Amino acid sequence: xxxxLRFRLRHALLLSVLALLGAGAAGPALxxxxxxxxxxxxxxxxxxxxxSTPGPPYRRAWTTxxxxxxxxAGPVVAGETIVVVGWDRVVALRxxxxxQTWSVEREPGPAGPPAVVEEQxxxxxxxxxxxxxVALSLEDGSEVWRHDVxxxxxxxxxxxxxxAIVGGRDGSIRLLDPETGDERWARDLPGRxxxxxxxxxxxxxxxT
Length: 208
Fold this sequence. Notes:
Order of helices and strands: HEEEEEEEEEEEEEEEE
Oligomer: single chain
């Protein structure tokens, strides 16, 4: 890996959260609010990206620094926990103040946003043949299961009622059992999958 690229990847990530408060309003603390669930990219399998919130303007509630490589994906929210996948680690933060609850190293590589289902954080890791999908405990970050896929997973994990959908850079798409990591089915498509699969509940859509 070129030295310049290595240096850029080592920059610390600064994660900022905007409080949903009107300008100058006292309002409740961020942790006292009940946020909409956002357990995967776009909030749901269709990636609708909608949530009920007060209108702007907003203010910054907190900023936290995450050691290691910079961010590889946007955060997801499960209850009072924010989960961020970085280049070389997965980190869980408190929604209320940004404090870190756990940090787990991951095989360096690109990854889209993780998904949280059944108190497990499902994320991808690794480059090329080292590519894998891993489930961690939301409570403490301990590994629950690992499924080797042999290709980089660039897009995010999409969770549907039947399981977790994973698209690979080699054009493969899989449905994994979120409890065990077992493969329920797999297909090989022409081209490369480098975006997050989406579903409307009847079909799965991928861009290759």
